[in-house]
Amino acid sequence: MADNEHNSGNAGQSQAHAGGLEQARQAAENLGDRARELGGSAAEQARHYAQAARDQAEAGAAALGSGMRNLADTLRQRAPHEGMMGTAASGLADSLERGSHYLEQEGINGLAEDLSTLVRRNPLPAVLIGVGVGFLFAQMFSRSER
Known about the structure:
By secondary structure, the protein is an all-alpha fold. Helix content is about 95%, strand content about 0%. The chain has one domain. The protein has 3 helices and no strands. The chain is elongated, with a radius of gyration of 34 Å.
């Protein structure tokens, strides 16, 4: 009879142990589901913010293109039409006009692709330009701190 009580005690412990394992498994499963939901939500928010940033960049590029075209028109109207100043103003206005068309047609994505291609084709000049621009920024900021 003592063995019977001992066996039934072991059976009760086994059932309690199995029940605890089941609860732990269920809790882990619920936690995993919740983590997947949160991860999906975070990824969706990141995609949303990235798209908003792309849209703003494209709108900025279009506005810049429009501003460049307006500046070219103003330059053509107000600058001298003859002599060295007239030639320089006309060339600058033409460059502004071409740049505005490029930005309006290609946008930021086209600009980034063209810049990547240019750097890949000419890596050494690109690095030298980057170093030069960095030097100029360093000079500007070090003078402003003095």
